[in-house]
Queue: 2 jobs
Job 1
Amino acid sequence: MAAPRPIYLDYHATTPVDRRVVEAMLPYFTEHFGNPSSTGHIYGWEAEAAVAQARDRVAAAIGARSEEIVFTSGATEANNLAIKGVAEAYLDRGRHIVTVQTEHSAVLAPCRYLERLGFEVTYLPVQADGLLGLANLEAVLRSNTVLVSVMAANNEIGVLHPLADIGALCRDRGILFHTDAAQAIAKIPLDVEAMSVDLLSLTAHKLYGPKGIGALYVRRQVRVAAQLHGGGQESDRRSGTLFVPQIVGLGTAIALGLDEMECEGRRQLALRDRLWQHLQVAGDVTLNGHPTQRLPGNLNVSFAGVDGAALLLGLRPTVAVSSGSACASESQQVSHVLRALGRSPELARATLRFGIGRFVTKEEIERAAAATIDVVQNLRSPSVAVR
Ligand SMILES: *Cc1c(COP(=O)(O)O)cnc(C)c1O
């Protein structure tokens, strides 16, 4: 018999596709395979109608209008279109962009790219709790600032930045406000009007939808210079034949996620709190990020006096977790988010990111907690610690 698979607690990296989402997608691979741009026959119309419904669902989830939604290949592309697209479209306004040190690389890398082209970027530090201080933001805004980009929920430590306050500040100064909501969409309430958001990125594979599809919300009147040129799809903001099954999957995933958001949020919060309670038994464990201003399914903890690599290795048969962001662990680099919180490299390495999601049970949380405590205690016991 094959060994049981480890408990999956890495929902911030990606999620399984909900079977209801797969069911909704399937007909669009085979019977309803038309190109939504082929408006001369029923095949095209069917595809067009499915895309329109998905667009309505995505728009409704954030309080936007359907024509303000641009489908992309995911949040990476949406962030690139938002940041590079605004920078290029508003050259006459200025060349200064503000973002935060703890952003995802899909925001930081386009910013660094723009710096090479002569733009100026301010990377704001965060407070000890991982949140952006409003006064710090206000202090760096200038007359030539064109864009502020601050994520809704952090992918490592789960903290929720004060979007409405940031939005109000930007609106007041006539500065565009972009938020990467890849982790936040259908997890916490989002409203582009109430939060004065001008651009918002999202992706399906963090919310039980398929990989390779996402969207950028672009407020009406706001311009983004296209980064992909071709057939002029998506009102010329993003060319390329629409990936209809994936778009249907995104729409379905968002609708389901919203329906279940409150109830599922409460359930995950209870599991998260249970896990945290358990883990404190190990002693010398620090919670990273604000204790309550965070995603319900996120727990990010550091264990003092433990070798990070050994910790992950010890847990591998039982629990699938990350020690930071996926990219950070591949390159063996210390997470830039934990560094921004002031954690030492050793403590940052001895960090686990637990991502709790839709298919995690109470029993799995109990087992994961027990396994973690076990590994931590073993690594700390003198007989093992001798080198
Ligand atoms: C996953 C993630 C991304 C990248 O999304 P893709 O759809 O995989 O390109 C961007 N930002 C955040 C905060 C994420 O968690």
Note: The chain has a mean pLDDT of 95.
Job 2
Amino acid sequence: MIAEKLHEVEAKIAAAKARRAKDLTDDVTLVAVTKNHDVAAMREAIDAGATQVGENRVQEAQGKHETLDRTVTWHLIGHLQTNKAKQAVKLFDLIHSVDSEHLARAIDKEAAKLNKVQDILVQVNVAKEAQKSGVMEEDLRPLMGLCDALPNVRVLGLMFIAPDYEDRERCRPLFRHMHEIFLAAKDISWKTSNIIYLSMGMSHDYEMAIEEGANIVRVGTAIFGPRQY
Ligand SMILES: *Cc1c(COP(=O)(O)O)cnc(C)c1O
């Protein structure tokens, strides 16, 4: 069942890639979002070809990391509290949700202790939603500049969580605008940052996100079914 749904999503990703404008040529990485699904479900997805998993809570990921007898790339997609930075740096290959100087510095400090350079994305609140995490667009450049100067952090791109609009087409201009911001960030000559990833699109809008330039999509429900809370 999970295998089937995973392959369905992969096929839809391929079709969305084919619909893109000619200048959008990036490969698209699928992160299977396994939050609130157990290790058995994770194994099923991995055995069916998933190579990337996304979790939104450090503690949950930690337990799964200990149990999961498979090699996979770990993405932290949820909001990260500074006091969890130490565990996050131990567990995750890519942290998508950096949105403050305070958090960036905490990650840098913990990564230094482990002799690791932590790959991160900066989360942008391009929809300017009051309750959402993510840095405001006008604060993005200074935050990226700060991260670029931190020795144990490497910025690989940007992340965006679209608003919950009923009419998903209202998200399209936001995805498009994120892609413009991504291209502008790519153009800057950073010291250590290497802006290659634009992470946006979830179960109900990943095809649209790909059409507008996403090259990482984070899909849970469409692969694993509804989450049990
Ligand atoms: C849960 C979550 C997803 C996946 O959501 P689905 O709608 O289940 O595909 C993607 N990104 C983030 C940040 C999430 O928290």
Note: The chain has a mean pLDDT of 97.
